[in-house]
Design brief:
2 copies of one chain form a homodimer.
Chain A lengths: L3 H26 L5 H4 L1 H6 L21 H4 L4 H7 L2 H8 L1 H33 L3 H4 L24 H36 L8 E5 L9 H12 L4 E8 L2 H26 L6 E3 L9 E3 H25 L4 E9 L2 H9 L10 E4 L15 H21 L1 H10 L2 H7 L4 H5 L1 H34 L4 H32 L1 H5 L6 H8 L4 H21 L1 H13 L4 H8 L6 H21 L4 H21 L12 H25 L6 H22 L1 H4 L3 H14 L5 H5 L6 H4 L3 H12 L9 H7 L3 H5 L5
Antiparallel strand pairs in A: 1-5, 1-6, 2-5, 3-4
Chain lengths: 760, 760
């Protein structure tokens, strides 16, 4: 086990690493050539069109103003300058609520840290077991500050007990306040939102097939009958897989055409050519521009035909529809009630906003959905608990002998000693690395198979799966494997129910490991997040090789959303560590505090300058965050119970059992108190907005506004302008654009863009 | 352990007992004097006003027609003569669905029994372990037919495994069909029901106090605003405790007055007198009729005053209201949606039908409700697991020495040897008997404290608690205490996770115990149910001493509802026994079959002739029945897993683990497929009925119909006729009576009453 000196060395290395990342970031950030990597959000919102620091010649790519190099930490105050309401306007509520998780961490752990430093550490140090005894197991210096240092059977454990109570109460109090706050923010956000199509829309699934009626007719009839006063219309969902393929094909060709035209513009002396055959590598050589034009017009015909086919063929309509209502009240009623006598038909739910819809999952029938959930939950269980088995299998295949057998020509290379030892050390780890790298993708695919309707819920479900994985394999895995080496003997001779006690006992011994983990993953890891090394490299590579047109450049620049499926679980792991170690090894807490504060700054900066949320779920992930912190509290309490029961502080056990019961009750109470705000829309709210809108815009043509909001995105993807107008003219209605939220946010608030212009 | 002979003796005794009860029943039933005990339902529905077999003189009380004595079993075909739809009309859907539980038992266990008799028992008998080995533990002959008779490690266990699969599949199939059927019956019943006030009414709880507004104003305003198109009115709930007390007082006096007036009519020569003082025992002697008249008129004034006070005082209005809508659609929408931004305010739910409301629980606020649930769940846990502790304590106090100390004057009596030994054997048992006797009442009080709104849900919750008690103390308790005597040594040396295995192993040894249990509780117990010995005695006692007026006689005759909180759990215990022993000791199954068939007949007879349901929940308890049978399946599977793992049939374990997973999935599927039919009202249904009603009765005055449907029952309880008319005249609306379901059922279908007249 690590001593204080080892820990100091580790801390030094990680702090130096983090600073190196920060300095590198400071240098790279102000180079005009990297501007699109470090400030893409401003390009997307329209706040910027080109790098601000502009020079000539080399200055176009490299920043020659030396003064800017010395202020390399000034992004930190910059990140704090924007207020929360500005962040909500700039990046959406999801981002603002995400940042509140870090604030929540600070709010919970700052007072706890103060308390443990003042009370618990002195109690532990003066406990003095380890000063007197030499045990079989080596203890580190850190243990002098932990609960291990207190004599078994000591009355001091009542102080630990009291602390456990105080920490639980404090955590619950802060959680309650924060849940209240986030629920209020969400309701306020939804209330102050401009008119959105999703407020008026309900998605209905499992529309039954009635012979002699098309799906559209059934939907029309059903809602006309059962919601006569509020039903407005519906939007069918088409099975457009083939169409999507054609559109993708056309886009690719269009790109090539653009590229060749640009090339021709730059070098008008030479018309570009290409070959007709496979991938342009073989076949007759032809004029490229003409060739692509030809092929595009061919495709256009096909697409138009396919489009007509889909729109006319009743079989292309899936048994799903987006049903729109003439008021928010009508939509709220339809989304929350059961429609049909058969509860598996006509399932209604809130429509996600159009950007958020995961179209592929819409037509899954009820029975299939239920079977998919079963299969995926078994698969997740297997993945979490047995993931080492296939990896060990791959590792056993991927050793050197196996490699030599498969590829004998590599033998001379492999037999070189340096390479051999490198490979032998490297190959077994590679399988694990590859697995861990693709794990989030695998989990996301699993969530997709489960059949959730919106991207936001897919991300939340993937995050939940990742959390289980982290909990079992990072948290419990580190503790049990560690003890398996140290206490193997006592371990295999205990019955299975003793495991919680064993874990509880070995918790204090693992404190230094987790401290190092926090420094590597939390400190240096977060510093590398701000550096964005991978996107930087990829962007420049793409810029060099792939980017042909302005559209390509925008694609290469796209920063994507915050990676919630990965970030939420790792954040929740820090809460778990903090709560588990708060009573046991309090010196771990300052490490966590540093993480929360630093990560808060970094992510605030990233949200302002980099990430661009694809959709807005209005903080829908908060109940999950809350629930997992409660779970962490429960785990911490059970492990403390296990630990204390071995410390002969047995009379404290009944006192500790009360804690989990109260915590579970608190969770249930919070669930019924706040969760409906995240799942349902209160009628009071809907009615309020309806009345306000009627007063302010009495002549609003809602039908036109909602007309094709939920058209499959591929129908929008090209010829957008003409098509839309055409559709509207067809319906003989006035032209009112139907903006999605992204358009709103990009149009509306320009004031802070300027006031933020000074920053870097 | 019992041998086959012991079992035969026990069976003989119980069968004789059951027959004795049946013959006694046959004799007592046809005595005119008992007619009101054995056929009260016909008196209540108005099918009978006096005993049918009427003689003169002694014949008024005793049946002298000898011929009727010989047909003592003819109630059985009589019980089967009524069809299910007639039962629904006669006794309500609850009763019909209750009977279906027995049918379900027969449907599940008849094919299983046939299969085990043909396949499993031959396999077990030819297994032959116990024929060869003498074990430490004594085995009974029954064990030759059970799984214990198969050699450890035998391949024959795969037959048991296959059977476990077949039984699970068959049970699930039948459960699915039955759930489907009951859900259909419920929907059909609700759809074909006449107009009921509860279809238009929603109960809203936690109405917030707004300063300057009364509760009524708040409700009016809120629903006018948020349900403008459908809101009709609301009925406030008054805090009428004092009023109820006065009314009860008046009723008592009224009864005395009636009694004295009757007495005076019979003996006109002597005016009855009474004393003014305490309980009529002391004080001045006065004329009774005048005295009671005087006191009643005094009370009338008080009541009128109190009534005015309650109706005027805004503080007497509780923060609860029954809100009525102009259509079923409006009520369905309001009941299923969230009203307010704060999910703990304006909680709406379906109103139970007026007879079913438990008024005392209406005004409990949300936080208090949540705390009550926590406390009660802890209390139930303690009651289930530690109920022996207080009983042992009471027993230790209630021994003879303690008794002698408390009451020294009893010493000479106690010291008599016969009495002493009787008391020593009797007293310790008494505490337990008393506890078990009051247990259902205690559980019902607990459910009331939990704050459920309707009598039907109170009964369901009490039944759930009783089921946990039975499961732990009757099922597991019998098995573990049994083995504690037999296998104490091996027991205390096993870690706690071994307990399921230990239980699984001792399950076959307990088969004879449960067979005896089934015969005592299931056969003889059910026969005593039909005899109604307790109500018979109580009725005659009351008739002799208390009954003064016709109203008293009706009260004494009242049979009440089927005792669901006690009957459902014991029924579910039989399902558990059947499923657990189906694979392990198949000879138990015929005993269970006899129980189901016999109990079905008896309860069918009782429902037709005796019980009178207080309310109608339209089979709302079915999801609980279904859920508990699924739980029984899971328990059976786990115990089989434990049993087989000790039989060195270890390679079967993975195959068995699939079963519980599939069962849980099946349960989840059924839950989402059918449960909404029991919890929610589909809009399609509501709209259909609305449209039909509008077509058939276009001029219906709903407001008048709903006017005082949910008036607190005590306001109805006297002066009913004048008051009601008065209220209606006040509102200046046409007189439309608002019948509750009981009135409907008593008025409408007289045809089968006649056709059933021939029966006994």
């Amino acid at each position: 086990m690590a001593t204080l000196e080892d820990l100091g060395v580790s801390a030094f290395i990680n702090i130096v690493g983090a600073f190196a990342f920060l300095i590198l970031f400071a240098v790279l950030r102000i180079q005009p050539i990297n501007d699109r990597v470090y400030f893409p959000k401003w390009y997307i919102t329209g706040g910027r069109n080109s790098p601000r620091v502009r020079g000539r010649g080399v200055g176009k790519f490299v920043n020659l103003n030396l003064r800017t190099y010395f202020t390399f930490l000034n992004w930190m105050p910059g990140a704090l300058r924007m207020s929360e309401s500005e962040i909500i306007q700039h990046a959406g509520l999801d981002s603002a609520v995400y940042l509140r998780i870090y604030i929540l961490g600070l709010k919970i752990f700052v007072p706890i840290t103060v308390l443990v430093l003042l009370v618990l550490i002195p109690v532990n140090v003066s406990g003095g077991t380890l000063l007197n005894l030499k045990k079989k197991i080596m203890y580190s210096d850190i243990d002098k500050l932990s609960i291990s240092n207190v004599n078994a059977g000591s009355q001091r454990f009542f102080i630990h007990l009291l602390m456990a109570y105080l920490f639980t109460l404090w955590t619950c109090y802060i959680l309650y306040k924060e849940y209240d706050n986030v629920a209020f923010m969400r309701l306020h956000f939804l209330a102050s939102q401009n008119r959105c199509v999703d407020q008026f829309t309900v998605v209905v699934r499992n529309v039954p097939h009635v012979s002699g009626h098309s799906i559209s007719e059934s939907v029309e009839q059903f809602f006309h009958r059962n919601h006569p006063d509020h039903y407005l219309g519906h939007q069918a969902v088409y099975n457009a897989n083939k169409f999507a393929k054609l559109v993708r094909q056309k886009e690719r060709l269009q790109n090539w055409l653009d590229y060749n035209q640009l090339k021709f513009e730059r070098h008008p002396e030479k018309r570009p050519t290409t070959k007709r055959g496979f991938l342009g590598l073989c076949g007759e050589r032809v004029d490229a521009i003409n060739y692509y034009r030809e092929r595009i017009s061919e495709l256009d015909e096909k697409i138009a035909y396919e489009r007509q086919r889909i729109l006319k063929d009743p079989k292309a309509i899936m048994p799903v529809a987006f049903v729109t209502f003439d008021s928010r009240w009508g939509a709220a009623v339809c989304a929350q009630t059961q429609q049909s006598k058969n509860p598996t038909k006509w399932l209604t739910d809130w429509a996600p906003e159009p950007r958020d819809v995961y179209w592929e999952n819409l037509p899954i029938p009820f029975v299939s959905l239920s079977i998919r959930r079963l299969i995926i939950s078994i698969a997740v269980f297997a993945l979490v608990f047995f993931y080492m088995i296939p990896i060990a299998f791959v590792q056993s295949l991927a050793n050197l002998e196996g490699l030599e057998k498969v590829a004998p020509f590599l033998r001379p290379v492999i037999e070189i000693k340096v390479i051999k030892s490198f490979l032998q050390g490297f190959l077994p780890g590679l399988a694990l690395k590859v697995f861990l790298y693709i794990l989030p993708t695998v989990l996301m695919i699993m969530s997709k198979v489960e059949g959730y309707l919106s991207l936001s819920s897919l991300e939340r479900k993937a995050a939940a799966k990742y959390y289980y994985f982290m909990l079992v394999n990072v948290f419990l895995g580190s503790i049990i494997t560690g003890t398996a080496f140290e206490q193997l003997y006592s371990f295999i001779h205990q019955p299975p129910t003793q495991i919680p006690i064993t874990i509880g006992v070995s918790i204090p011994m693992k404190a230094t490991f987790f401290m190092t983990y926090i420094m590597v993953d939390g400190w240096a890891g977060i510093a590398s997040e701000i550096l964005r090394l991978k996107p930087l490299v990829i962007y420049h590579l793409k810029n060099m090789f792939i980017v042909k047109t302005e559209r390509d450049r925008e694609k290469a620049m796209d920063p994507g959303s915050i990676d919630l499926p990965e970030n939420l679980p790792s954040l929740q792991l820090y809460f778990l560590l903090g709560l588990v170690y708060a009573v046991v090894t309090p010196v771990l807490l300052p490490f966590i505090l540093v993480f929360f504060a630093f990560a808060f700054l970094v992510y605030r900066h990233q949200i302002i300058n980099v990430y661009n949320q694809e959709y807005e779920s209005a903080g829908a992930f908060w109940p999950h965050v809350h629930g997992r912190i409660i779970a962490s509290l429960l785990i911490a309490q059970l492990l403390l119970l296990g630990l204390l029961s071995t410390k002969k502080a047995a009379n404290s056990t009944p006192l500790l059992i009360i804690l989990p019961i109260l915590t579970i009750w608190f969770h249930k109470y919070c669930k019924s108190r706040f969760e409906p705000a995240f799942r349902k829309c209160p009628l009071e709210e809907a009615m309020e907005k309806d009345i306000m809108e009627k007063a302010s815009e009495p002549n609003l043509n809602l039908k036109a506004y909602l007309a094709d909001a939920y058209l499959h995105p591929i129908f929008h993807s090209f010829d957008e302008e003409e098509e839309k107008i055409e559709v509207r003219v067809d319906k003989g209605q006035s032209h009112i654009p139907s903006p999605t939220r992204s358009e709103i946010s990009s149009e509306s608030p320009p004031h802070y863009v300027y006031h933020y212009e000074f920053e870097p």
